[in-house]
Design goal:
Layout (H helix, E strand, L loop, with lengths): L4 E5 L12 H17 L8 H10 L2 H7 L1 H15 L10 E5 L8 E4 L2 E5 L1 H4 L4 H18 L3 H16 L9 H4 L12 H14 L1 H8 L4 H11 L9
Helix pairs in contact: 4-6, 6-9, 7-9, 7-11, 9-10
The structure holds zinc ion.
């Protein structure tokens, strides 16, 4: 039984907030459309149709249409919470319905923020699952002791030196091509991606590992030991 509270935060400039003028709204909509056109090839839907989806939703229809996915997210968060002390567990999911935050996810204390795009645009449970696992990976990284973090951080440097970051792009395992992992950015990012991939899609990860040079596999195994209870075979 899920205990997670779901909130929908409507911050969208283009969903018709009465505090901004129609002109501002049109300009903002055009600016965002331009941005989407630049990355069109990476999006699952044409830019116009994404904007239209943002415009047509209100919280009632959002809950109604995405009830199953929201329920799935709540249950997954409940089960992942079990691995963390009460003080760190996520108790609220805030769905942010603003195109400016398209495809973003993050955590603020006990609140998990998810862009509504993970429901309306990327209507795919495997992507939602991957994003939630990734955010719990960040939570797990934050719980490392200073010494363990130092150890992990040097593995991140080593993984870069051995050109192994490509193995940790969450997107390539879930079809979330634009917004899926950036392990090259920081140790926290590779940790979150490793947490997601090794726990959520262990078979796919292991099959890719077969193609990694034997000399570099020990770095991957060492990284994996931080997010898995048992060593990688
Ligand atoms: Zn991340």
């Amino acid at each position: 039984m899920t205990r997670i509270v779901v909130q929908i935060v409507f911050l969208a400039l283009i969903t018709g907030s009465c505090s901004i003028s129609t002109l501002q709204k049109d300009l903002e909509e055009r600016r965002i459309l331009e941005q989407f056109r630049l990355i069109e090839i990476l999006l699952p839907l044409p830019p116009d149709s994404i904007i239209a989806r943002y415009n047509q939703y209100d919280s009632t229809s959002f809950y109604r249409e995405h009830f199953t996915s929201l329920q799935f997210a709540g249950q997954l968060i409940d089960s992942l919470n079990a691995g963390f002390p009460d003080s760190l567990q996520i108790d609220t999911v805030a769905i942010e319905h603003s195109v400016e935050r398209f495809g973003e996810a993050g955590r603020q204390r006990k609140i998990l923020l998810l862009s509504s795009a993970y429901f309306t645009v990327y209507d795919d449970i495997t992507i939602l699952r991957s994003v939630i696992y990734h955010e719990f990976g960040h939570l797990a990284y934050d719980t490392l002791s200073t010494e363990r973090r130092r150890e992990f951080d040097s593995l991140w440097v080593e993984a870069g030196r051995q050109a192994l970051y490509y193995l940790f792009h969450d997107a390539e395992y879930s079809g979330n091509t634009r917004f899926g992992g950036h392990p090259e950015d920081s140790p926290a990012e590779i940790f979150a991606s490793a947490f997601n991939l090794l726990r959520n899609q262990p078979e796919e990860f292991r099959s890719r590992l077969l193609y990694v040079d034997e000399r570099n596999r020990s770095t991957v195994r060492a990284l994996a030991s931080f997010v898995l209870p048992a060593p990688l075979p």
